[in-house]
Amino acid sequence: xxxxxxxxxxxxxxxxxxxxxxxxxxxxxxxxxxxxxxxxxxxxxxxxxxxxxxxxxxxxxxxxxxxxxxxxxxxxxxxxxxxxxxxxxxxxxxxxxxxxxxxxxxxxxxxxxxxxxxxxxxxxxxxxxxxxxxxxxxxxxxxxxxxxxxxxxxxxxxxxxxxxxxxxxxxxxxxxxxxxxxxxxxxxxxxxxxxxxxxxxxxxxxxxxxxxxxxxxxxxxxxxxxxxxxxxxxxxxxxxxxxxxxxxxxxxxxxxxxxxxxxxxxxxxxxxxxxxxxxxxxxxxxxxxxxxxxxxxxxxxxxxxxxxxxxxxxxxxxxxxxxxx
Length: 325
Fold this sequence. Notes:
By secondary structure, the chain is an alpha/beta fold. It has two domains: 4-224 and 301-320, Rossmann fold, CATH 3.40.50.300; 227-293. Helix content is 51%, strand content 15%. It has 14 helices and eight strands. The chain has helices at 15-26, 44-47, 76-88, 92-99, 102-109, 111-127, 147-154, 156-160, 168-180, 195-210, 230-238, 240-249, 260-290, 308-320, and strands at residues 4-9, 32-37, 58-62, 68-73, 139-143, 185-191, 215-223, 296-300. The chain has an eight-stranded mixed beta sheet, with helices on both faces. A hairpin with a 5-residue loop joins strand 3 and strand 4. Helix 5 packs across helix 6 (111-127) and helix 12 packs across helix 13. It starts with a strand and ends in a 5-residue tail after the last helix. Residues 5-178 form the ArsA/GET3 Anion-transporting ATPase-like domain. This is ATPase. InterPro entries: ArsA/GET3_ATPase-like, ATPase_ArsA/GET3, P-loop_NTPase. Pfam families: ArsA_ATPase. GO terms for molecular function: ATP binding; ATP hydrolysis activity.
């Protein structure tokens, strides 16, 4: 079973929402999960209706069966201070460096180091054990950068090659990669049934596989329901009089010829045609995703938008589809 779940996706696909729902789903049956944010956007806190996350692990939700969800917004500067204290025991000297702006300077000029710090903090949480020897967290979910940057972000070995070939930074990168490339990790890609997100998902999977990174599943978000099949639309188009009669029976205009019900038929069938065209396009996109030969789960759109209750709804749908298994 995977213990580190990395969630990526094209911007606008609801990546953060799906990551939060996945963390809730994994917190089922008394389990404890950690939801990690690495982009500094504070997108997790509003979903759980809590204040902005500090640089500490804070409980933000309780799962349906008593599990717990903790959340952490990783700050690269603070993570570097932790790193300096861990390996060099700098203590107050590290804090002085931060006040002088050296910490921000280091993480800005060396983006590879920043990625090592961000991924390293998540991987540390995956490996961490309590006094009883058991893992502190049953699963860690990372709300990761978008699909276009995910391979470079995770492949920190390549990133640090130009920074350090030996020493603590190199060793840290090696430790991170042992977790990321292990069976404990799964990279999930969030997409919509639209051409550009699907294409970016296909490209992202290819890049991840080429880099030897473990791909988990495709999570299709905001799926709209099928209201009318192509066959049903064809039947309605052939029987316009029957459609007018049905509209009249529903109280939408009288049944007389030329009445309001008949006038509604043409615009209604035009909308139906657009709907069936979308259904046909989505069927083609599903076939394209099926070609990836990955588990694919679908999350129907929430008509009222995503609030805390909606997040629990999405988590339940993920559990039913086995993504938390």
